[in-house]
Amino acid sequence: MKMKKLTAVLMTAAMAASMMAGCGSTAPEAPAAQAPAKTETSAAEEAPATEEAPATEEAPAGPVEITVTTTFAGEDSNAQNYKNAVAAWEAETGNTVSDTSATSDETFKTRIITDFETGSEPDVLFFFNGADANDFVNAGKVVSIDDIRAEFPEFASNMNDDLIAASPADGVKYAVPVNGYWEAMFVNTTVLDAAGVSMPGADYTWDQFLEDCQKIKDAGYAPIAAALGNIPHYWWEFAIFNQQTPDNHLNIPGAADDAVGSQWVAGLEDIKTLYEKGYFPDNTLSATDDETFAMFTDGKAAFLLDGSWKVGGIVGSCQSDPEDPSTLDADKLAGFDVTYFPGKGNRKTTDMIGGLSMGYYITTKAWEDPDKKAAAVSFVEYMTSDEVVPLFAQHTASALKNAPAVDESQFNALQVKAMSMMSGVTSLTGAVQDLFNGDCRVSTFDGMPEIVTGSVSAADAVQEGIDVYKDTLE
Amino acid sequence: MSNIYKNKKYVLLFLAPAFLFLIIYLYYPFIVNIYGSFRQIKNLGNFGNKWNEPFYDNYIKLVTDPVVFTSLKNTFLMIIATIVGQVGIALLLSLLVDNIERGTQFFRTVYFFPIVISATALGLLFNLIFLYDKGMLNQFLELFGKEALTDWKGEKLALFTMMLPVVWQYVGFYFVILETGLNNISQELYESAAIDGATRFQRVIYISIPLLRNVICTCLTLGVTGALKVFDLPWTMFPKGMPLKETFLTGTYMYYQTMEAKNVDYGATLAVLIVVLGVLLSRVTRLVFKESEDF
């Protein structure tokens, strides 16, 4: 009898214990506001210890697995380069990477922020260096480049420090960049030819653009491939940039009716005008970005405003096997070009949006783990080495001190055209949306369909975003 | 030996783990969620650093937010679609299949099959079917001479396009339940009715449906409560309530506010609404579709 009682108690205890195991062992992290400020003091304390214990001595005896999250996934031009580089690093060091990379979008950003909040952050993270990273930077959950250099003096020493962006949260540099980006207007020249429109150049104006759009529409094509209900980001950025100059583009308005706010409102009104004229696809409010991109590559739309990462996607669409470059249809690719966004007002056509907006972070969690510290540093050093960075940067910029000369013979036709366009750039300005982050953008990004259909005024939407922005500053 | 069953403390002991599980994973999060709905929270994983001003601000927003009204309206439409589309069609199909001599098992398998496919995969599949350019449906319409493309996911047709796959997916589930219920009806009743001269239609109306009442009630209860939880397929096909926030359901709107708009506290408020709605609807459903003991 006693045995049965004991069995019953043990079974119940086992059930309860197994259930409680799901609770995990990670205690909730302190809220950002209560967390200690950046690790500068701790770094200062750690530095002397380093001298006594060189980095090499801290390397663990056996192979280590580190968790890495990047945006090199999906249709990103560098997805395959990343896989290859990871495999090479694993082969070289014997360590392994548990990769949780995903396509960059708002859900991805939320996932990363949540991972940090719940203590589930990766060891190494490739992420935005703008305001999107403010939360985990403020919470002291990533290690600054200076702190890492205090212990690993050669860390990122091949980079030009002036080109490494500081965090807007505290002005400290955390993320080691790999490849830069630019945003420009891709053109399907086959559609232009069919509509009797010539290829835009460096002096292309907004008025000429409107005229060309009308010609293209009259010829039965969609002038602009854009999914305003899904990814209005690029149009948002350039429409606002067109009201400004590179000098004042990164200013955040204080109100919708102040000088900068009025420029933002005017920019959004320009997008509304394009929508009302019917220059976006008929289904622009219900389509996904993939759908409108397919319209562009299938020769049903003329212009596509996007980033340098889309070069790979366009080239892939010209290959019978997107994974195999040898299957490229060169004639089809010749029908694509890339040019500057049409200029308006004081913004020159050749003033572009671009820069080095992302980089590799090492998290405090990995840094404080003696088994992973050296492996995380080694991984970032490898991925940002003079040999690997050029593979990723290709036709974009990098922060390398000794960037190798670009061998154009290795490039496809669209990459060569991109290089040619970049040679004529008069300025490269960062995206203001990287400073006006997250929830501030909701009213004008997710609210773009309401703005262009007139159910919400551009001024109200801008003001709503500014109110949220001010709220985040408190 | 029998002592262990008489002693109630063992019953409590065995009930404890499940009770504990519910407290940890259901009631505690729910209470925390209510607390969170009064705070200002931008990111998941914390409670923010201040209260809303006034603290019930989100609840004021809840009753004035037009998208909440849209999502409630769509959720109720989804419930109607479930009752009419899922249970209704399943009842019709089960009655038809019940009246055939052979092939019952074949139809069971065919109709049930969509259930085993993940809703996300189905969402992607239906995205291709309803695709604007080169979608299956629009290609068919082109074959029949229609020149202009139909935007199945546009403002006019979005709700229909969203609900059709949801209805289609679950018809088989209710079909199997109803078919099983029909099999439990004694054949003698049908035979005696046939001898009395009842037609097949009369046998269905006067024997099958009345005797299926309890099964139908169970299906309707499952359908109504299930409609409140529909999430993955609509979100895959209509992310962010596209177009113009017209396709939000209560669940998808809560997810949007929490994960996309980073308005976690408002998402928590919507979660409270969903729970209240769920409790109320399940009570109403139980009252309306009360099972009869006569059958």
Overall structural class of chain A, as computed from helix and strand content, comes to alpha/beta
Through-space gap between termini of chain B: 39 Å
Secondary structure: helix percent of chain B: over 70%
| Strands of chain B, count | 2
Give the count of structural domains of chain B.
1
**What Rg of chain A do the Cα atoms give?**
25 Å
- CATH fold category name of the largest domain in chain A: D-Maltodextrin-Binding Protein, domain 2
Enter the CATH topology name of chain B.
MetI-like fold
Order of helices and strands of chain B: HHEEHHHHHHHHHHHH
Quote the distance from N terminus to C terminus of chain A.
65 Å
CATH class bucket of the largest domain in chain A: Alpha Beta
CATH superfamily of chain B, called what? MetI-like
Strand order, biggest sheet of chain B?
1-2
In the CATH classification, which architecture of the largest domain in chain A applies?
3-Layer(aba) Sandwich
Biggest pleated-sheet summary of chain A = 6 strands, mixed
Q: Count the helices of chain B. How many?
A: 14
Overall mean pLDDT of chain B: 89
- Please state the oligomeric state of the protein chains shown: heterodimer
What is the name of the CATH superfamily of the largest domain in chain A? Periplasmic binding protein-like II
